[in-house]
User: What shape does this take?
Amino acid sequence: MAYKSADDILKPDARFEGFVVLEGEWHRPMTLFDHHAAIGRVVLSGSVPAEVRDAYDRARNTMLYAFFDYDLLVVGEIQAYGAFELALKHRINGHGGESKGSMRNLVDQARKAGIFPKLAAGATPFDDPVEAMIALRNSLSHGSSQIHSPGMALEVLDSCAWGIDTVFPAAEPVGWPKR
Assistant: This one.
């Protein structure tokens, strides 16, 4: 998308014009309030460190502003994956600071620690929710022209919330998918 003029900054992105909200037998155009509510339903429920919660909310806020610039959905997804990785760093390393390795290494360590179940032999990346997250994160983080729909972005946000809540669970176990 082209750089917006100052006059157009707060105008909804035209790509949101085709989205509707169903109300009984009727439908109406999606509004900013509908978009906000959809994102607002995807929350963290575990005992998450404040730094991780802030990173996750940064992803949600970025997705919220995508109503004005649709391309920000992908930026929000990348931030959500970053919040998941930050949660892993806090749990594995005891802090969110710099660490050697990649998300792959952190997930492998989390599997060894019993945070996530071991990967089944012969499983493909999309047979396991954590492997799917790594594959999708890598496809976005290493250069991509992909643009995802709001529904896809919400799925990414939801999977990252599940991952973060699994790393820092609430009193009750978290299942897949939880929402």
In short: The chain is about 50% helix and 5% strand. The CA atoms of residues 74 and 147 lie 6 Å apart.
